[in-house]
Amino acid sequence: MIAEERLDQITEVVRRAGLNAETVGALREAFGDIHFTHCSDDDIGVGQPVRTSDGFNLYLVDGREHCLVLTNDPANATGVVLAEVDQD
């Protein structure tokens, strides 16, 4: 489970600092119980983001079963995908 407040905090950190390797590293340190993945939004084939902001979308991952799947349910989320949106 990832609390809505944590999602808000993560979104705000990325919004202020920008989405890059350093920010993702800082998030991993600050939220050690959450798995973070950084990719291009073009790499996300299906699913809807749970948060959007200028330059990135935030998706949730459910890793409870054998395969990882995107979810919109924070109660089932075990990780976060920070997907960079191309501004062109």
Helix/strand layout:
Blueprint (H helix, E strand, L loop, with lengths): L3 H14 L3 H10 L4 E6 L10 E3 L2 E7 L6 E3 L7 E6 L4
Parallel strand pairs: 1-5
Antiparallel strand pairs: 2-3, 3-4, 3-5
- Along the chain, the helix and strand elements come as HHEEEEE
Share of residues in helices: 25-40%
The rounded distance between the terminal residues' Cα atoms is: 34 Å
Question: Strand content of the residues, in percent?
Answer: 25-35%
List how many beta strands DSSP finds.
5
**What is the molecular shape?**
globular
Report Rg: 12 Å
Give the mean pLDDT.
Answer: 94
For the sheet with most strands, the description reads: 5 strands, mixed
Number of helices: 2
Q: Spans with pLDDT under 50 lasting ≥5 residues?
A: none
Number of domains: 1
Describe this structure in words.
The structure is a single chain. The chain has 88 residues and is an alpha+beta fold. It has one domain. Helices cover 27% and strands 28% of the residues. The protein contains two helices and five strands. The chain has helices at residues 4-17, 21-30, and strands spanning 35-40, 51-53, 56-62, 69-71, 79-84. Strands 1, 2, 3, 4 and 5 form a five-stranded mixed beta sheet that branches. The longest helix has 14 residues, at 4-17. The mean pLDDT is 94.
Structural descriptors:
27% helix, alpha+beta, globular, 88 residues, five-stranded mixed β-sheet
Please provide a brief summary of the model.
The protein has 88 residues and is α+β, with helices and mostly antiparallel strands. 27% of the residues lie in helices and 28% in strands.
